[in-house]
Prior knowledge:
The protein is an all-alpha fold. The protein folds into two domains: 18-83, no CATH class; 96-141, no CATH class. Helix content is 56%, strand content 0%. The radius of gyration is 20 Å and the shape is flat. The relative contact order is 0.09. The model has no long low-confidence stretch (mean pLDDT 79).
Amino acid sequence: MAGARIEKLTKCGFDFCAEKPSNDEIWQLRYGLLVVFKTKKGHANVPQRLEFEGVKLGSWVNTQRRAYRTGTLKAQRVVALERIGFEWKTTGRRDLPERCALLTVYKSIHGHASSKQKDTLEIGECNVGEMRFDARKDIKIGA
């Protein structure tokens, strides 16, 4: 690295010796965030695409479920997750009357029912856009 760049970074307070957190430390931080989520929402079923307090918590939760299914999740992590009521299998799909009711609420708020796939509705962390995407998929496969 050029001397001028090093000098500029040093003046900004950049720490060249900072250690990267271990995988266990990162897991504990994410687990702690999941506990906060559960405290606020009353459940630990984080939607897959949900960001919570700046962290892709839904993605992390999905990774834990995948590791559990493949038998690669450490036993103490399984115990910790089960202690807070973590569900390994989620239905993920709402029945048609519930989907219609949620879409009606979305329409009353936004004036239309043309949600994007990433749009969420804060009623049980419902992802209205994903729900509409699933409905279109159901129609295409004849479900």
